């Protein structure tokens, strides 16, 4: 550490500080004191020094401090402690320990990094990681030692990468020296390399499962591949290995009549001569949902709009559509059926068909989408929809209007630029009259009469309150779709508008006051399962302090119970030590004397990525070492590499830091002044002064 005093004023100003101290001391201690002359001179000196020091500090002098430290050359051993390295890595670790000690004795700083931060000490590393992300491991080294004097990284690995990108795509600020372990000769083995399937399938629907099978050196042999569920064989196919490097994809199709996450298994029969049978099986978890939202399209009479609306809805597999045309069969559906959305085309109407049913839909709080037409009973529709009120002319006159998008409407995230197309589409027939919207209703489309823009709403949406409603004040959607196709050869703009409108109307809002759910639907084996807890009062403000009981049940019916208190500091509850499989959970708490319960499920996957490929990739390690300027070596040549490092030892780095601070901010000066003044005051008081 080196310090230097810098003046911001002429240095000869110090004379005035000294004179001020002398003058103050002379004036204060000039009278004949009640104590001896020596003590008087000492007290005067203390007072003079303090006053001179304070005056000096008022000149704002600066202190420039510089410090130089030695950053030794650092060597980092990056250990690929995955399962595929296994016994080869364990055998090489004794050499790594010896090399680490030797480098430390030679003045190097040696550090250890491993996959997943599993160990910072050579003796604590176990080769049990179920995936290999070498790019992530090297990035961790770069981050942890950023700005440090890291010259070389020794990467102990077999070169197998099954997660993340290949490390050869990145550039690193240090040399990577690859210490290659493992067996680069392909083993006699057959394995399931991967399984491709949908994560979600619908109840009763057929869905595909594809298994990719690879084999090495087993040509001429055969086995079977089987799709199972809960031990029950669903389908089997023969596997004939007709070449040394074998690869083939096998497609299965199945369905499920049970809701929830279903556990399927792909299994390969054993083949004589294969190295391992652990990679002959893979688990598949598919969430079977009865999640299609049910939509009812109820219309007064056949109309081209009905087919257009049907095309828009059925383009999305998440919807199940029922159509009821009252003039053909006057049998309105029972209001007990849980529809997520009811679309009413020209209902209520002047003929009275279906009008009573609308009131039942309103009482059931079902979302409603009113589409008005020339047979609509407009005054009754205005009173029932509670969003758009139309005061029609006495002669039931209609108007021809085109649509203009409201750029202020943002709830559906629509593209205003593409919706300008609506202004070029054929006009709709709408009731002529005075239009008003209720509080909370938003206008999506305005009416445009010829070239005149109006503020009359054409399409409105209200999502406030207990019931969501939308109103389209005219008929003729089918013409819009036809004309858009004629102009653009597509039907995207109109369809996208109504698909998003139907989606926002039919989506169910979660109004529960007690919610417990895992932060993810899937977790890796060994990973903690975190449950998020939310508790709300009557006005949906978060509350805390609730005791929550949580029960987990695995596929075998074995149950585990937990109890925890929900708090603001710990809104999550973590569970560890769960084996792979499907788990169902149920959580409960007492609110206002009533038990609230929630339930769900999650999956813990054992990916076993390390088993999909066990053949070491020394070519990748050579390329990585070459690109970074490092060395490719085997355990036998590690000692030679260490000796080379010692002989060509990189220079230590001198790191210098410098800062500048005003002298008045140094705390020790404050305490020095206080101590001097306190000592002076104490001596004067003791000898009868003051």
TrEMBL record:
Keywords annotated in UniProt:
Membrane, Transmembrane, Transmembrane helix
Q: What is this protein called?
A: VWA domain-containing protein
InterPro entries for the chain: Class_I_gatase-like, vWFA_dom_sf
The organism is Dyadobacter endophyticus
- Keyword Transmembrane assigned to the entry: answer is yes
Q: Where are the transmembrane segments?
A: 12-29, 41-63, 663-683
């Amino acid at each position: 550490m080196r310090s230097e005093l810098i003046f911001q004023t002429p240095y000869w100003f110090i004379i005035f500080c000294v004179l001020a101290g002398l003058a103050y001391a002379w004036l204060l201690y000039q009278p004949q004191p009640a104590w001896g002359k020596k003590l008087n001179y000492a007290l005067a000196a203390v007072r003079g020094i303090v006053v001179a020091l304070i005056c000096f500090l008022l000149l704002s002098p600066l202190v420039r401090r510089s410090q130089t430290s030695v950053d030794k050359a650092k060597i980092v051993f990056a250990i690929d402690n995955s399962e595929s390295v296994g016994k080869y890595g364990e055998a090489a670790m004794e050499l790594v320990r010896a090399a680490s000690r030797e480098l430390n004795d030679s003045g190097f700083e040696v550090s250890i990094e491993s996959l997943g931060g599993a160990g910072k000490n050579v003796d604590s590393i176990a080769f049990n990681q179920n995936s290999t992300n070498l790019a992530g491991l090297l990035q961790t080294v770069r981050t942890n030692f950023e700005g440090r004097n890291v010259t070389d990284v020794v990467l102990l690995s077999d070169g197998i990468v099954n997660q993340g990108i290949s490390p050869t795509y990145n550039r690193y600020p240090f040399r990577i020296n690859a210490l290659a372990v493992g067996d680069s000769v392909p083993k006699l083995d057959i394995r399931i390399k991967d399984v491709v399937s949908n994560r979600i399938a619908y109840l009763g629907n057929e869905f595909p499962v594809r298994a990719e099978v690879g084999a090495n050196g087993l040509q001429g042999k055969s086995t079977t591949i089987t799709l199972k569920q809960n031990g029950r064989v669903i389908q089997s196919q023969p596997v004939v290995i007709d070449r040394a490097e074998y690869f083939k994809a096998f497609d299965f199709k199945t369905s499920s009549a049970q809701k929830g996450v279903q556990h399927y298994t792909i299994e390969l029969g054993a083949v004589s001569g294969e190295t391992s049978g652990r990679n002959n099986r893979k688990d598949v978890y598919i969430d079977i949902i009865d999640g299609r939202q049910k939509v009812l399209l109820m219309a007064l009479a056949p109309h081209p709009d009905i087919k257009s609306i049907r095309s828009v809805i059925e383009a999305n597999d998440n919807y199940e559509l029922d159509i009821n045309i009252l003039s053909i069969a006057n049998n309105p559906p029972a209001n007990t059926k849980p529809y997520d959305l009811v679309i009413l085309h020209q209902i209520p109407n002047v003929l009275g068909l279906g009008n009573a049913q609308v009131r039942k839909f309103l009482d059931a709080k079902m979302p409603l989408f009113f589409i008005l037409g020339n047979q609509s009973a407009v005054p009754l529709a205005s009173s029932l929809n509670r969003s758009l009120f139309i005061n029609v002319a006495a002669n039931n006159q209609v108007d021809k209007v085109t649509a203009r998008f409201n750029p202020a409407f943002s709830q559906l995230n629509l593209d205003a630029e593409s919706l300008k197309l609506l202004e070029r589409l054929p006009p709709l027939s709408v009731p002529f009259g005075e239009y008003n919207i209720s509080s909370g209703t938003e206008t999506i489309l305005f009416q445009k009469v010829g070239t005149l823009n109006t503020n009359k709403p054409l399409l409105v949406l209200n999502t406030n309150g207990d019931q969501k409603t939308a109103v389209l004040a005219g008929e003729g959607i089918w013409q819009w779709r036809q004309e858009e196709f004629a102009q653009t050869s597509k039907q995207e703009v109109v369809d996208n508008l109504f698909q998003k409108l139907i989606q926002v109307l039919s989506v169910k809002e979660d109004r529960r006051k007690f919610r417990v759910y895992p932060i993810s639907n899937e977790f890796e084996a060994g990973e903690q399962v975190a449950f998020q807890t939310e508790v709300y009062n009557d006005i949906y403000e978060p509350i805390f302090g609730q005791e929550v009981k949580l029960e987990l049940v695995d596929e075998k019916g074995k149950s585990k119970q937990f109890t925890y208190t929900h708090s603001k500091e710990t809104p999550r509850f973590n569970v560890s030590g769960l084996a792979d499989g499907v788990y169902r959970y149920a959580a409960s708490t007492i609110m206002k004397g009533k038990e609230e319960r929630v339930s769900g499920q999650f999956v813990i996957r054992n990916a076993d990525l390390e088993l999909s490929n066990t053949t070491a990739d020394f070519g990748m390690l050579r390329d990585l070492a070459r690109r970074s300027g490092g060395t490719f070596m085997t355990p036998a040549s590690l000692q030679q590499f260490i000796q080379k490092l010692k002989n060509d030892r990189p220079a230590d780095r001198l790191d210098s830091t410098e800062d500048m601070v005003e002298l008045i901010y140094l705390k020790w000066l404050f305490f020095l002044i206080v101590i001097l003044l306190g000592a002076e005051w104490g001596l004067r008081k003791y000898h009868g002064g003051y």
